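Table S2 (text version). Query chain:
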Amino acid sequence: MESSPQSPTDSILMESTQLMIRTRDGDREAFGSLARLVSRRAQRLAHALVGHEEDARDLAQEALLKAYRGRASYDPRQPFFPWFQRILRNTCISHLRGRRVALRLHASEEEDGHDFELVDAGPLPERLAAAREATERYRLALETLSARDREILTLRHQEDLPYREIAATLGIKEGTVMSRLFHARKRLRTALGDEHGLEDPS
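Corresponding structure-token output:
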């Protein structure tokens, strides 16, 4: 029986882990490769938390530097990215606290959620224009949400992480991941408006 092919996300997760193991073992060139591999993803996640592109770049670099300095504490039996995401998340939270941004801890909810898709129809030029418009609407709507909602939506829908990886990254149960996504998507749909082609399959 043939094994299913790896997704690009799975490949990056595996490669980043291998590079971090080499970094931990003293290979400085491996860390340079690792930084190039994950920097754009780190910037996207930082931006989801702090909402400012330039700050996100700086915070992603700061988190990478912290990861390098803390390389001896990395457990090679664990995947790299959840470990690094915790460093990045704490870096962003410290930044927000330094700017005196109000942060709240939310009680976890226990409701199942469902994925949704953007409906794609019509001739190619119209589809491309509609896709650009939908992307901009999504970006603007996302900015109206809390950092907590932006983070989990980015991990799931932009980084395409499975529930188990999101759970490991955020230090929560998979059921809580589903619950948070359910409510974050609900708030996102409200921000977008029902007319914008979002479907929530049952």
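Notes on Table S2: Helices lie at 8-24, 28-50, 53-69, 80-98, 124-143, 147-158, 163-170, 174-192. The domain at 117-199 is CATH 1.10.10.10 (Arc Repressor Mutant, subunit A).
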